[in-house]
Amino acid sequence: MQFKAKQIADLIGGSIIGDPDILISGPSKIEEGGAGTISFLANAKYTDFIYTTTASVVLVSKDFVPERPITCTMIVVENVYVALAFLMENFNSGISIESTVSVLTSIHSSVVIGDNPAIDDYVIIKKGVTIGKNCKIYGQVFIGDNVEIGDDVVLYPGVKVYHNCKIGDRSVIHANAVIGSDGFGFAKDETGKFKKIPQTGNVVIESDVEIGSNTVIDRASMGSTTIKSGAKLDNLIQVAHNVTVGSNTAIAALTGIAGSVEIGQGCLIGGQVGIAGHLSIADGTMIQAQSGISASVKGKLYGSPAIDYNNYLKSYAHFRRLPELAAQIRALQAELDKLSQIKS
């Protein structure tokens, strides 16, 4: 399908500089371009490409002021990333799935399914499950007993949802994520062997949550592990039992969160962050990649154990010069030793 530049501008609330009738059939990177494609400029380090790109149309911010002639048509928007996200929905065909229930499924007779379902081959849905309207459930998904799934939910191939868990409206869970596996709870008996502590709770995923591939969210020992509305979790994240992730918090890949952590709303947590158990992360906290959190924190943090972000940068500026600084200290000490000998 092709769109005129003017149609795209009207769709995203932008204004056109250039040819409003130029046709667009898909997106491209600004450095690669290609006739009939649309790209975007949102990061200043890519500015030079807008003067050489072969893309037909480029989304730019209203703050962008060209310094050289530009051959492409520009669509000026308030927020390039927001406009791009809205626009890409129209170019993203996704994995194909029929709006029907495949005959190659295993669905218990007690299951309640809302209107307009799309349930793919080899899906297993156990007893007592309720599924809302307009849900897409791709192949080889497993949904355990008494799971509750809201409207417009998407479960990509291989997702596993254990018993009694809840998934809110418009949430998206990507391939091979596991929701509701047992929390890591063991106690040593008198012989020194580990005895498993039953994990009797569940996982509650609220509305508009997105969870990346191969992420695991453990069920609570008692109560619920909770991912609140609007939270976004990347691939390969471990969320332990009884954790709460606040609304509109984003967590990057390979982060590990130990049990009973309370993460506030609007937090940004970088990749490979490790968070020890039973801590509180305040609303709006920003944690840089590979940081280690061993105490309750707030603000902007970096390092392992994490400290204030600005203090870390200042400290690191000295740390990376330690061999040079150590040599200077040894030289100064040698001078002091000479002065001491002279005085004596």
What does this protein structure show overall?
This protein is α/β, with parallel strands linked by helices. The chain has three domains: 3-88, Udp-n-acetylmuramoylalanyl-d-glutamate--2,6- Diaminopimelate Ligase, Chain: A, domain 1 (3-Layer(aba) Sandwich); 159-304, 3 Solenoid (UDP N-Acetylglucosamine Acyltransferase, domain 1); 315-343. The strands form six sheets. It has an eleven-stranded mixed sheet. A ten-stranded parallel sheet has the order 8-11-14-17-20-25-28-31-34-37, with no helix packed on it. A nine-stranded parallel sheet has the order 9-12-15-18-23-26-29-32-35, with no helix packed on it. The longest helix is centred in the last third of the chain and has 22 residues, at 322-343. It is flat and about 100 Å long. The mean pLDDT is 95.
Features:
344 residues; alpha/beta; Udp-n-acetylmuramoylalanyl-d-glutamate--2,6- Diaminopimelate Ligase, Chain: A, domain 1; UDP N-Acetylglucosamine Acyltransferase, domain 1; 3 domains; eleven-stranded mixed beta sheet; ten-stranded parallel beta sheet
